Amino acid sequence: MSNLVAGLAPWSSSWLAGFTVCMSLLVSIGAQNLFVLRQAVRGQHVRVCVAWCVASDALLVGLGVAGMAQLLGRSPTLAQWLQWGGALFLLAYGLFAWHRALFAPGGGMDAAGGARVVRGVLGVVSGLAVITLLNPHVYLDTVVLIGSIGARQQGWLKGVFVLGAASASLVWFVSLALAGRRLQSVFANPRAWRVLDGLTGAMMLVLAWWVAQGT
């Protein structure tokens, strides 16, 4: 039995490292999280959104572990572009959220594809793909930060690390979807959408400043 435990120790350690590092970054408010939350509140294509987020996180972390993190680390100029690009993306996202809160009819429900507008699965996934893949800040988090930590694992343990990160992503986005479902009655009131968009805009602008500072 002691030999079995000893054999599992590296496996469990690598899995836990991937899980905790990924979870610590996911729980911060980001554009992807808010998109999934809004879809969960609307009750539209939530499972597809969760599946996309988990798959994209696993892919990006895997790319970082496979060597892209080291490649980006050797290019300070590219890292700087990712930093500023991420800040601009978050700034634009925050300003659009404030625009919905202040000017969109029906508390932003119609303009944002809310409860009275049913979006097709392709439109939802396309919007989520844009937020995920065209946000430079995502690459800083998944490829550079998480990937560089996972790259320190030895041999097959790198794959275990990626699996741990994917597990954290699954737990987080399923929890977010369940939370959004419970909030559906609250967001039946258009004012709730205005409040959410107002808070979203504020958080995105703060995050944009934080990314621009490089902290």
Features:
8 helices; mainly alpha; 80% helix; 215 residues
Secondary-structure-based class equals mainly alpha
Radius of gyration equals: 19 Å
Report the total helices.
Answer: 8
Uncertain residue ranges? 1-7, 108-116
Percent range for β-strand residues: under 5%
| Helix-strand sequence | HHHHHHHH
Could you walk me through the main structural features you see in this protein, from its secondary elements to its overall organization?
The chain crosses the membrane at residues 15-37, 49-69, 81-99, 120-140, 160-180, 192-212. Its main location: membrane. The protein is an all-alpha fold and 215 residues long. The protein has one domain. 80% of the residues lie in helices and 0% in strands. It has eight helices and no strands. It has helices spanning 2-26, 31-42, 46-73, 76-103, 121-133, 136-150, 157-182, 190-213. Helix 4 (76-103) packs across helix 6 (136-150). The longest helix is centred in the first third of the chain and has 28 residues, at 46-73. The chain is globular and about 55 Å long.
